[in-house]
Specification:
Blueprint (H helix, E strand, L loop, with lengths): L1 E4 L6 H10 L4 E4 L2 E5 L4 H18 L4 E4 L4 E4 L4 E4 L2 E5 L4 E2 L2 E5 L4 E5 L5 H5 L1 H7 L6 E5 L6 E6 L5 E6 L4 E4 L4 E4 H5 L2
Parallel strand pairs: 5-9, 10-11
Antiparallel strand pairs: 1-3, 2-3, 2-6, 4-7, 5-6, 7-10, 8-9, 11-12, 12-13, 14-15
Organism: Enhygromyxa salina
Protein name: Putative restriction endonuclease domain-containing protein
Pfam family, one: Uma2
Length: about 190
């Protein structure tokens, strides 16, 4: 989740220095720093279930599942942020300026919250879709059993798919199918 931006623009190097000293995570968007606030128990439960389900599905393969502690860096759009779930296939590529930031996410998942939904659907989605390695961007509702998948086509355009109760969602980028009901169980 995202809070108000800092009033002063900072370089990426300064952001990294500050981020190492902070107790809470921050996003950096073209020199502006935004605090990220904690989520609800429902958000945490959905996130944990997705990590387990996807992790079990890709175990032993070439893909790794990361929590929201992994920073994603896109130089193309001048952003450093944290997704709720990131999947990287093949070796993790690190930003040369920031060894803790991945530059090659394959699948990016955000669990929507009232305070972040507009940003997650708007500007953040645009940033993620400009990362060449991202094949799928997924939005997961926490107030209803609904998963939205934005999938990059071979021609570079994006397709939208939605799954609800009693349906399954296929993450083509990692060869994984998950029942929507399993995400929201419990």
């Amino acid at each position: 989740m995202t809070g108000a931006a800092s009033q002063v623009r900072v370089s990426y190097a300064e952001y990294l220095r500050q981020e190492q000293l902070e107790l809470h995570k921050h996003q950096w968007i073209d020199g502006e720093v935004y605090a990220m606030v904690g989520g609800t128990p429902e958000h945490a439960r959905i996130q944990a279930r997705l990590i387990r389900l996807i992790g079990n599905a890709v175990e032993g393969g070439q893909c790794q599942v990361f929590t929201s502690d992994l920073r994603i860096r896109s130089r193309a759009t001048n952003i450093a942020t944290y997704a709720d779930i990131t999947v990287v296939c093949g070796p993790l590529q690190r930003d040369p300026e920031d060894r803790d930031a991945a530059t090659n996410p394959k699948l990016v998942i955000e669990v929507l919250s009232p305070t972040t939904e507009r940003f997650d659907r708007g500007d953040k989605a645009l940033h993620y879709r400009r990362i060449a390695s991202v094949s799928e961007y997924v939005l997961v509702a926490q107030d209803a059993a609904r998963i939205e998948v934005f999938r990059r086509s071979e021609d570079g355009s994006w397709r939208f798919l939605e799954a609800g109760p009693g349906e399954s969602v296929r993450f083509e980028s990692i060869g994984c199918t998950i029942a929507v009901d399993d995400v929201y169980a419990g």
